[in-house]
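Batch 3, record 17
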Amino acid sequence: MFAEIITIGDEILIGQTVDTNSAWMAQNLNRMGVELIQSRSVSDKEASIIKALDSVDTQSQLILITGGLGPTRDDITKRVLSEYFGASLVRNQEVLEKIEDYFSQRGRQILESNRRQADLPDKATILPNPLGTASGMWFEKGDKIYVSMPGVPYEMKGLMTNEVLPRIKERFDLPKIYYRTLMTEGIGESFLAEIIQDWESSLTDKGISIAYLPSPGVVKIRLGAKGNDEAEIKEKVDFEIQQLYKLIPSYIFGENDISMPEAISPKLKKSGKTISTAESCTGGYLAHLITTIPGSSDYFKGSVIAYSNEVKMAQLEVKKADLDANGAVSEAVIRQMAEGARKHLQTDLALATSGVAGPDGGSDEKPVGTVWIALAAKEGVYAKKYTFEKNRSRNIRRASLAALSLVRRYLDGQLELT
Amino acid sequence: MFAEIITIGDEILIGQTVDTNSAWMAQNLNRMGVELIQSRSVSDKEASIIKALDSVDTQSQLILITGGLGPTRDDITKRVLSEYFGASLVRNQEVLEKIEDYFSQRGRQILESNRRQADLPDKATILPNPLGTASGMWFEKGDKIYVSMPGVPYEMKGLMTNEVLPRIKERFDLPKIYYRTLMTEGIGESFLAEIIQDWESSLTDKGISIAYLPSPGVVKIRLGAKGNDEAEIKEKVDFEIQQLYKLIPSYIFGENDISMPEAISPKLKKSGKTISTAESCTGGYLAHLITTIPGSSDYFKGSVIAYSNEVKMAQLEVKKADLDANGAVSEAVIRQMAEGARKHLQTDLALATSGVAGPDGGSDEKPVGTVWIALAAKEGVYAKKYTFEKNRSRNIRRASLAALSLVRRYLDGQLELT
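Prediction for the assembled complex:
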């Protein structure tokens, strides 16, 4: 089965917004065995929208449309689609009540333009959007289904996950596709490829595809197979995943797009240990990553973000003599920061980061990208110096992930503290 | 003059790669006065490429094509384009030498597939690509120009900057385009539209376009005009921007895609005041936003992330009696958190956040999305209760932006502390 995407919005055509929605939709269609044959961005002018609808590929059975459903005047998708499919806009009481609730819950005044979002085409199936005020709309014409969704990424994702994908699955007889993704960290893509190259070259003959998906600090390895016998393709992929676990055990932190903080969350809960952070160069990002996880308050108690040396001394008992002698980016200081957080925030474990995030502050001895990271526990401290990149935000991210990696390796018994 | 983009590559259609090239090209075309009317991603199959070429919009005079120029078997763009334009592939000695140099400089062995990248269509103008081994190709047919470039972002950018854009500028008599964007916060899109609706309705007659670009906590308003007289359109847009400054002065925090932390950075530097944060529900994200800015160490000293009540009491002197009586999400506690941070981290200003980020922990009295935020200064404390959303990560982001908003408003003299 074939699908295509039409993204409506001038903000994309003038380059103000990078279209991340299409990649997300593409991934989710692909996993279900729906082949995306085209993805287009068009202007939010009536003529452009109609031209896009008129030139839909004859093969496409599903056309996913995003954008242009807001309450303001430049949002014309709903009107244009209604006219295109010969529908009339009718005020939907149920949707109106939800919009009114949405506003009253937030203590915000409702405007007529907001109420008009409840005017919906009578020929469409309305898809409820609990995350916003623009409903999804499902039109059918000939052999084709057209689904219109808001362009706000999390609203679109909610509608796709809860409404669109389940309906597609039910409606069409899709081929079986099975993917499994391993998440690795602590090793670069080319080193990884070198370790597993013999195993990798055997995959094609077995009908298994492999993809490396690198991002800063993390490389995903995805194995996939397609076929009619669900059990067979699953068994085949699962077998090769087990081989990977044997080949690179210490680099794997989880599966299926799990994030590092998600991966360590159950491990920390199971260990019964609490954790805190003492952050200099990561400036709170490490604590933020940990607290993205609901329920992280079970193990995360707090942090001291010690950006200045005064805070390092006053809140973490870092010694002035060591700051003077070695600077804040040093083994002596990082050990004291980790121990200080552990003591003052009264946790079992404490992570500390101190480095030169950039763009300024680098030296010959400590260039931009130099970061010390430590983990303190009852048994002692593990401290290590890393050399990351020239880019500030990538350094902050990579340092935070490297710190989380220490927790994972400590809880897995891979780390020796002294 | 109108243009369109065709991106060739299955990695985009299966969602493995987010297409950032198109936004970059769009921005650069737009700045030059070239209007992008469509952007498409198609599969790297021959039939898909030909279909895309056949369905180019009749209005388009420039078709920018990226991808499919690598040395591997799935890279077929060059062959397909050559056949489409009736050209023959001829080995280009000059390009061959550069490819051979490229490999020898990197100490890598050259393969026949790499040499074949010097086989180029005789009907195209070859655009040199010093950053890689795939040349750009410039075809002309009828009134249309087709430019093929590699999909590797930095190679494409090099070719666009050094070859394509200068040639377009020389070839076409382009209109002048002028945009200016105001960044607002503290008000929703529809309320904003209501305040400025009379003014907004006068814009069309003046030949000025307006767009609202909302993201969590921030709404951008972009005004634009097009014409032949650069000074005239600039004056026209600048005048209306001044009207907006008069209509909604307290909501504007900057221009041209500046972020909130960027916007407050020079204000804080100028004020000479230092700042710290005491964070519960934002879990370090507020400190992270502040420290995304290079040089933030001039004013940001540090934070206490007080996720647990123990840390709130021990590090910020929050009183147990108030925690017991009102809970952590309360005015009494948020005031003490802000004051505690100001005192212990020895800063002029301190921000504090405490709320129910979700998904759990909500109650009838304090549902998910309830957040108290405070700013403490020498003169006293400003504390306010907010009601955000049901989504954890959006609550964290919006609470952090709302906290930064307090700093902006305080430094602008808009906030009364008691």
